[in-house]
Amino acid sequence: MTGNINDANTINYVYRFTFKDGVKKEFKISLGARDLNYINPRKESPYPWTELKYHKCPICPLDDNSCRFCPVAVNLADVIDFFKTSVSHEEIEVLVQSDERTYLKNAPLQYGLSSLIGIYMVTSGCPIMAKLQPMVRFHLPFASMEETAYRMISMYLSAQYFCHRKGGKPDWDLKNLKKIYEDVRVVDKSFCSRLLDITTRDAGVNAFVILDTAANYINMTLEEMLDSLEGMFGSYYAR
Amino acid sequence: MPGKKQSKKIVIADDEPEIIDLLRQVITARGFTQVRDAPDGKKALDLIDADVPDLLILDMNMPTMNGYEVIARLKGSLHTRDIPVIILSGHYIDEQRISCGSIKNIFFIPKPFDNEALLTMVENILGK
Fold first, then answer.
1. What's the pLDDT tens digit per position in A40-60?
2. DSSP secondary-structure letter at A51?
3. A199 touching B, CB under 8 A?
4. Interchain pair A192, B18: CB under 8 A
5. How far apart are CA A205 and CA A224, in angstroms?
6. Nearest CA to CA, how far is B78 from chain A (Å)?
7. Hey, is A107 helix, strand or coil?
8. Dihedral of CA B97/B98/B101/B107: which sign?
9. How far apart are CA A109 and CA B39, in angstroms?
10. Nearest to A17, CA basis, from A76, A79, A75
């Protein structure tokens, strides 16, 4: 069962992990359709590693006094706890059900896990990760680097258009996009530090490594990727 | 005549294709063009046996054959025991399993890695 799967007020994802020994584990995520925020987010947790001050991201704007828990960590706690003894390269079946379609892939655990973690990262209320939140509306599990880059550039340019429409100063040259991904990398690294203390195997940490790798790759190759995309749009600037 | 960097041979062993792509991008952008890669330890050893590299960049937790086994194999051969190894790992490594003293030049960089830190280490090992 997938809960609110046809409810227009929510966007829903179900991740089902099936291990070789038949063990299954399911995670359901519901987001507000308009604001893309995680519905019914947790505000507290029994795990000390979910506290904001625990390996706090050096660029985190949240105040430890008014916000005791890291909003991402507190919502990821159950996921991390379940996989804390899992090996990253264990081959599993991952089924992802969205409101529109179902994805199925046999892959190393870390791929499915990084895809799931990516949703929590951008929808839980982290002000750094929120810059990527619009991408979750068209979440694409197991995306290639090229697909991720296209979604990211499309999202960022849409953001500039809306900024322009509201009288703001748009960044048509994508100058600030690299800064966003530099900040995302800081968050990814800080989470790895958190998880190193509480996981005995590498699945959780490596899921963050995969997310960081994508951010690192996009930052390194942004100009090249734009060049490679340019040829697709010839009909828009043909004289 | 190839430059000094172009003459240096590097093997990357990692089960993550995206990490291999990224490492290739980072390393070749700095002028090291002879880069080969393998998705597990066994295939990495095949590459090394075919043509001994000047540097091995090694993930530790891989299927089929992990990094510890690769290091043990390298250590056991006169031809490969001195190959410098940069261990790239997201999790803690068991130093006792690799600090037997028979392999010189073992270095460690944590994942997620900083591109400049990695390049500095590569250049310190292979020369600028």
1. 888 899 999 999 999 999 999
2. B
3. yes
4. no
5. 29
6. 31
7. strand
8. negative
9. 16
10. A79
What is the SS3 assignment for A239?
coil
Q: How far apart are CA B128 and CA A195, in angstroms?
A: 35
Token reading at A143:
């995306």
pTM to 2 decimal places: 0.91
Q: Which tokens hold the place of B69? A: 């086994």
State chain A's maximal CA–CA distance in angstroms: 63
Instruction: Kindly report, residue by residue over A95-119, the tens digit of the pLDDT.
Output: 999 999 999 999 999 999 999 999 9
The complex's ipTM? 0.88
3-state secondary structure string, A33-48? CCCCCECCCCCCCCCH
Distance CA A87, CA A89 (A): 6
Pick the CATH number of B4-126 from 3.40.350.10, 1.20.1560.10, 3.40.50.2300, 3.10.50.40: 3.40.50.2300
Which letter does DSSP use for residue B58 in this model? E
Among all residues of chain A, which has the CA nearest to that of B59? A206
Number of residues assigned to chain A: 239
Residues 6+ apart with CB under 8 A from B2: none
User: A87 and B22: CB-CB below 8 Å?
Assistant: no
* Best mutation target, A216, A219, A228, to test chain B (most B CBs within 10 A): A216
CA B70/CA B74 separation, integer angstroms: 6
Q: Confirm or reject contact between A122 and chain B (CB < 8 A).
A: no
